[in-house]
Write a structure and sequence with these properties.
mainly alpha; 7 helices; single chain; 196 residues
């Protein structure tokens, strides 16, 4: 267990906890987490995972802006239902990214798990973008990704990181519950029909 893995564990847990609480500090903490995991994953041959962390830095900055200024009239962003068009677009994006990343990793790197690394990377990109927009469906995508991440990290010998991602599954379930309650409350205040 390396110092990077311990720091990644702590900042990752704090980052997801803050996202569940809809606290904008999730983004700066997440950026620190991303920097640590670039080093950790790169040194363990999980190149797509390392590259994903770099993309997370960009998406984190964008999400930070959206959460602060992306709401009505340039105010804070509220939780929204995931638009219907997002699901098929997300599925096509994930399939295309998995194919491309797995081919790149298998052809040009010594990646230890090119397919699992590609699947988790692709799902995570979609989930992070959805989180930045505060679409409630991000939690579903994160749960699927985190289940696969646990298997990937166990098979790579990154036990503490595997435990972290197992904990993320629980936090994602809490996030889904809490964000759903916030959504229903805001719809009730706005006079919309709750549910669906």
């Amino acid at each position: 267990m390396s110092a990077e893995e311990i720091i990644g564990f702590v900042t990752g847990a704090v980052c997801v906890f803050l996202a569940v609480r809809q606290n904008v500090w999730t983004f700066p903490v997440g950026i620190v987490n991303n920097a640590v995991y670039v080093v950790l994953f790169g040194s363990n041959g999980l190149y797509a995972g390392a590259a994903l962390q770099v993309v997370y830095l960009v998406l984190g900055a964008l999400g930070w802006y959206w959460w602060l200024r992306g709401g009505t009239g340039g105010g804070t962003l509220a939780v929204h239902r995931t638009p219907r068009w997002v699901w098929p677009a997300a599925a096509v994006t994930v399939v295309a990214l998995v194919g491309l990343l797995a081919w790149v990793l298998s052809t040009w790197t010594d990646a230890s798990s090119p397919w699992l690394d590609s699947v988790t990377t692709s799902l995570s990109l979609v989930a992070q973008l959805m989180l930045g927009r505060k679409w409630i469906g991000n939690w579903v995508v994160w749960i699927v990704a985190d289940v696969i991440f646990v298997w990937l990290y166990v098979s790579s010998g990154l036990w503490l990181t595997a435990v972290l991602y197992a904990g993320f599954i629980g936090l994602c379930l809490l996030g889904l519950r809490d964000w759903r309650a916030a959504l229903v409350a805001s719809e009730t205040e706005d006079g919309a029909e709750p549910g669906g």
